[in-house]
């Protein structure tokens, strides 16, 4: 990978023969685990300004109509998360001279508080082309990481690394996005296609990015950003306005209509029936056909699943049980039948992927995948996609295959989990909306199919063969550091945590990502080895989840020595008031929480303070106050339950117990508490599903 320095530029053609479609990744981390930013892309004309406000792409306007830009969202990585963008340079309009890649933070947050700011660019096959690390960020609220630009008939990339103390509004103003003179309340449409956008900020850039011009920008109604000239320091910065569109989108109601059935034995007719499925082959065939047909009929869904694999935003057709030649005709040509084929056509060009499906926890077969990679390479196809119950991890491939790097045509191998498919369907029909009611109904039927116990399309289902021996070795105190079985358990735990993130994120309509408090670019094998040694010493598996819109971090700990699962969240103490008042308010706010909820006082100097169950503390909230005094920094709320003993999906299985623990804690503790707390952000990204959030003061009055 070509490493770049600030101000340097390089031609993409010199780095790869296949750089017409590139994938940009923006990444960062933070010591607290809750630092985040939002990416954006601007298309600029010859004079350094957007041609219209429609040239600004962000999380609620993620796809260009011509498919040249697609924001793929955040993806969990070994050291946190990465925000990814697909850019198809071959279809960028001729009057676009530059493509600016930027990011912005919420009002009052600085890029200097984040670690490991980095941009990477990969070609269509996923091979890394260039990287650019930024280590001089400070008070900036928005940052231009870099830009693609035309020069002499080819596309080049320039590393910029330049920030705006005035945030998103300053960046937007500088590139010609229309801004208002005063902040106005955000108007929302109940089923708007692109609800609110943008971020609070002021408008004077810290520095002038290279190439910024002064051309006048048109102003169609697609995007209207906020803000104005920089306000006095003591005034609050104006809020970024978000777009209102006339195009409607359909989401399913939260409460189902009352059934007309006489009793519970009457079952609704389903488009995709599952009770008759008997064999694994039957499950795989049915699941592949059901998924691919819905992808082709619901463009938003099909595009969402394939964009991350380098597919263009075009017309999609899907096929099953396609017979393709394999082998040498001189030695006896045979036929292979991949489970499915996806073809996308854009501007006369075809993108093709072969699909290999597994259900019911069955593992992928290396030779089978290898054969499909060879077929794809010989026929000029772009990708092979494996689809199964398992969740892929960086540095730990699900199947070992060889890709011939000498071939000019590159074929990339991707993996998609059933949990991710269900996650994307849930986001669309419950929160973001689709084009019409028929599409919403199709996705609902697909989701019902995936969640049915007979479909075999559940998510990650087995902690692996090392799970039971490791638990027994922990009980016997015979598990030693360096035991490879402990690494296997750590990897299975990571897969389970990522699946929990997908499931919870789909239900809430918010990003839920695992937190890694490590520097980026850490070696995955070394990091997992260190976590395995920690498991050997302490007998515990630990994870932290960051939920968008939530001030605290949701912690999950599995103690294999005691057989207990602990879910917890820390509530910061208010800035004002008296400790006894804080304690009384907190107990009042938790009146719907279960009686066995543990509440612990956190102290600045001595760490943990008094603790007790909610049942004991309700009549005596003063028991939360430290007897000898001490500064209270917050309160920790925890639920503890027994974990399952088996590695799989039996009724007492460990995976099911983790899901149940997270659901119980979220539903009975966090959600009731948040209904009484002020939201962190002034406007939700999606008006159909506002995000609950803990206030910055923790416990409101």
Describe this structure in words.
The termini are far apart. The protein has a 7-stranded antiparallel beta sheet. A 6-stranded mixed beta sheet has the order 1-10-9-3-7-6, with no helix packed on it. It has helices spanning 167-174, 280-297, 299-306, 366-379, 418-432, 437-451, 467-476, 484-508, 524-538, 579-589, 614-617, 654-674; strands at 2-4, 9-11, 21-29, 38-44, 56-57, 69-77, 80-88, 98-104, 115-122, 128-134, 142-151, 154-164, 315-320, 324-326, 334-336, 340-346, 349-357, 383-388, 412-417, 512-514, 540-547, 554-559, 564-572, 598-603, 607-613, 632-642. It has 12 helices and 26 strands. It is α+β, with helices and mostly antiparallel strands and 701 residues long. The chain is globular and about 75 Å long. Residues 181-246 and 678-701 have low confidence and may be disordered.
List segments where confidence is low: pLDDT < 50 over at least 5 consecutive residues: 181-246, 678-701
Distance between the termini: 53 Å
Class from helix and strand fractions: alpha+beta
Helix content: 10-25%
Describe the main β-sheet briefly.
7 strands, antiparallel
**How many strands appear in the DSSP assignment?**
26
Mean pLDDT: 79
Per DSSP, the total helix count is 12
Strand order of the largest sheet: 20-21-22-23-26-24-25
Rounded radius of gyration (Å): 26 Å
Strand residue percentage: 15-25%
**Approximate shape:** globular
Which features does this protein show?
701 residues; alpha+beta; 7-stranded antiparallel beta sheet; 6-stranded mixed beta sheet; 12 helices; 26 strands
């Amino acid at each position: 990978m070509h490493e770049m320095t600030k101000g340097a530029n390089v031609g993409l053609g010199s780095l790869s023969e296949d750089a017409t479609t590139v994938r940009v990744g923006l990444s960062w981390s933070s010591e607290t685990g809750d630092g985040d930013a939002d990416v954006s892309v601007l298309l600029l004309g010859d004079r350094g300004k957007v041609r219209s406000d429609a040239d600004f792409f962000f999380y609620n306007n993620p796809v260009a109509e011509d498919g040249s830009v697609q924001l793929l969202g955040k993806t969990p990585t070994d050291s946190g998360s990465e925000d990814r963008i697909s850019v198809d340079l071959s279809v960028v309009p001729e009057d676009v001279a530059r493509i600016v890649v930027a990011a912005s933070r919420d009002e009052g947050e600085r890029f200097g508080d984040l670690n490991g700011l980095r941009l990477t660019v990969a070609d269509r096959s996923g091979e890394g082309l260039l990287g650019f690390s930024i280590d001089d960020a400070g008070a900036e609220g928005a940052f231009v990481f870099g830009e693609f630009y035309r020069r002499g008939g080819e596309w080049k990339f320039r590393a910029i690394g330049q920030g705006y103390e005035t945030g998103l509004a300053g960046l937007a103003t500088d590139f010609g996005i229309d801004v208002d003179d005063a902040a106005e309340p955000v108007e929302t449409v109940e089923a708007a296609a692109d609800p609110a956008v943008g971020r609070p900020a002021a408008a004077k850039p810290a520095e002038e990015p290279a190439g910024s011009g002064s051309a006048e920008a048109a102003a169609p109604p697609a995007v209207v950003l906020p803000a104005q000239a920089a306000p006095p320091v003591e005034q609050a910065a104006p809020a970024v306005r978000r777009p209102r569109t006339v195009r409607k989108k359909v989401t399913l109601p939260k409460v189902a209509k009352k059934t007309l059935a006489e009793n519970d034995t009457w079952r609704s007719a389903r488009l995709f029936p599952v009770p008759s499925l008997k064999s694994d082959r039957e499950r795989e065939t049915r699941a592949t056909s059901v998924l691919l047909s819905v992808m082709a009929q619901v463009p938003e869904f099909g595009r969402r699943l394939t964009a991350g694999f380098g597919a263009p935003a075009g017309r999609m057709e899907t096929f099953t049980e396609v017979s393709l030649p394999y082998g040498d005709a001189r030695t006896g040509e045979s036929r292979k039948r991949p489970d499915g084929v996806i073809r996308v056509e854009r501007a006369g060009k075809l993108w093709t992927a072969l699909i290999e499906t597994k259900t019911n926890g069955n593992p992928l077969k290396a030779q089978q995948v290898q054969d499909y990679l060879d077929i794809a390479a010989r026929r000029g196809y772009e990708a092979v996609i494996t689809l199964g119950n398992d969740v892929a991890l960086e540095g730990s491939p699900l199947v070992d295959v060889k890709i011939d790097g000498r071939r000019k045509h590159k074929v990339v191998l991707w993996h998609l989990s059933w949990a991710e498919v269900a996650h994307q369907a849930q986001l669309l029909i419950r929160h973001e909306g689709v084009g019409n009611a028929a599409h919403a109904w199709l996705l609902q039927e697909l989701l019902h199919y995936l969640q049915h116990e007979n479909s075999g399309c559940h998510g990650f289902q087995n902690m692996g063969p090392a799970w039971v021996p490791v638990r027994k070795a922990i009980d016997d105190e015979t598990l030693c550091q360096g035991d490879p079985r402990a690494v296997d358990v750590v990897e299975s735990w990571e897969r389970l945590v990522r699946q929990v993130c997908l499931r919870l994120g789909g239900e809430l309509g918010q990003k839920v990502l695992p937190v890694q408090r490590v520097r980026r670019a850490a070696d995955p094998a070394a990091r997992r080895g260190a976590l395995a040694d920690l498991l050997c010493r302490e007998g515990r598996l630990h994870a932290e989840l960051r939920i968008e819109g939530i001030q605290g971090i949701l912690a999950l700990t599995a103690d294999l020595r005691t057989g207990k699962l602990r879910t917890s969240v820390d509530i910061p103490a208010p800035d004002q008031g008296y400790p006894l008042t804080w304690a009384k308010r907190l107990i009042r706010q938790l009146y719907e929480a279960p009686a066995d909820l543990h509440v612990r006082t956190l102290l600045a100097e001595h760490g943990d303070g008094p603790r007790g169950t909610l049942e004991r503390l309700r009549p005596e909230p003063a028991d939360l106050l430290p007897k000898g005094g001490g500064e209270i920094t917050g309160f920790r709320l925890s639920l503890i339950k027994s974990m399952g003993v088996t590695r799989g999906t039996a009724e007492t299985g460990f995976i099911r117990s983790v899901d149940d623990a997270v659901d119980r804690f979220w539903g009975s503790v966090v959600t009731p508490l948040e209904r009484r707390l002020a939201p962190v952000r002034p406007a939700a990204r999606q008006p159909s599903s506002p995000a609950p959030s803990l206030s910055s003061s923790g416990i409101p009055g």
